[in-house]
Amino acid sequence: MKIYKELLQQSEEWFLLKYGKIGGSTLKKLMVDKDVRDCAIYDELLSTRFEPFELEEMFTSNDMERGNIYEPLARMEYERVYEKKVTQYGWIEMDNGIAGLSPDGIIGKRMAEAIEIKCPNRVTHTAYLRNPMLMIQEYIWQIVMYFTVLKNLKTLHFISYRPENTANPLLVYDVTPDTVVQLSKKDISNISSLVMRTKDRLSLLRVALEQDTARFTPKF
């Protein structure tokens, strides 16, 4: 595991380091019931083996802008309410070199706890208050990536933060390796099982990328 603690997220260096790799928000594109070469993200990953990184202008939605504004406030509020020190890291990469994670926060030197923050709109936050598992189901592969990358992780504190909400502005739902989620009517698994599944897919992805990189690289 490679740790880039001081790297600033959303910086050019951050984008360069993530270039051609699977992250927490893109893992779901790999975890589909298809051969890895048929996944929507495969050509994107393969193309980075043949072309250098160029910083592109990123589209920013209102929800993304809201997240940029309120995420630091959510982190501070979590620290205040739960009396825990949260440390930010830029990028944590797996040994396979093709996947990693930009955590919203790590608690403790052993990295046994972490936080993931969402700052949703009014309706979505209310839906999460009524049924917190909705946000776990929605972001399940991002959650799985936390447990895949962080080997010592015991608890991920998944946060929905909306300061305007007078009922509960800081909703925290704890996810552990034993947490059970329903991916479909026939697919019910705990986080540990999904981590195993993810590692298998990443291994297949690495082999496919190596083979196709060699296949399409000129021999002269």
List keywords for this structure.
220 residues, alpha+beta, Lambda Exonuclease, Chain A, four-stranded mixed beta sheet, three-stranded antiparallel beta sheet, 9 strands, globular
Order of helices and strands: EHHHHEEEEHHHEEEEH
Instruction: Please give the CATH class.
Output: Alpha Beta
Number of strands: 9
CATH topology, by name, is Lambda Exonuclease, Chain A
- The quaternary organization reads as single chain
Rg of Cα set: 18 Å
- Biggest sheet overview: 4 strands, mixed
**Unreliable stretches:** none
CATH architecture field: Alpha-Beta Complex
How many independent structural domains? 1
Dominant shape: globular
Mean pLDDT reading:
94
Structural class: alpha+beta
Count, helices: 8
- Share of residues in strands: 15-25%
Q: Ends: how far apart?
A: 35 Å
How much helix, percentage-wise, in residues? 40-55%
The main sheet orders its strands as 4-5-6-7
